[in-house]
Predict the structure.
Amino acid sequence: MEVENTKNEKRILVAVDESEQSIHALSWCLVNLFPQRDNVILFLLYVKPQPVYSSIGATGFPFSANVEATEKYGNYMATSVMSRAQAVCNQINTNIKVEKKVGTGDAKEVICAAVKTLEADILVIGCHNYGFLKRTLLGSVSDYCSKHVKCPTVVVKQPKNE
C-alpha cells in the first residue's frame, strides 16, 4: 500500500463502506475540504471483514464457513462500494486524483495502518450516530481512529433530516 509522497500534495484518506454515512462523509469532504484544489490525492479505503474460517456452531460442533463464498462476497462488496464512491467523486469534483485501496481485517486497525502507510494529511470518516449502548457494545471506529492516528481526523455526522 505504499505510495510516493510529493511534498506539495495534500493526501486525504476517506474511509468508505456500505453506509449512507460514509457516502455523506465523502461528499462533505469533496465539497468542503478542497472544492477547486489541485495537488490533492484522495485515497478511498474500503475494509473487508476478516473471513471466519472455522468456529463452534450453535450445536457445539466445529463449523467451517464457505471461505470461497465469503471471499467472493467481500470482493463484490468492495467493488460495489468503490464504484459508488467513484461516482460521487466524478459528480462533485472531476479534477481530483483518486486512488482506491482495499484492506482486510478489523476496520479501525486497518484504517489507522493505512493513514500511516499512505502518509495521509487528513483522515475523513463518517459517523453512524449510534446511541450509548450500541456504541459501548460495538465500539466506535471513528472514535478509535481519532485517538490513534497522527493526523487530523474529521468525523462527519450526517444531519438527522437526511
Observations:
- The mean pLDDT is 82.
- The chain has one domain: 10-157.
- Helices lie at 20-32, 67-92, 107-117, 132-138, 141-148.
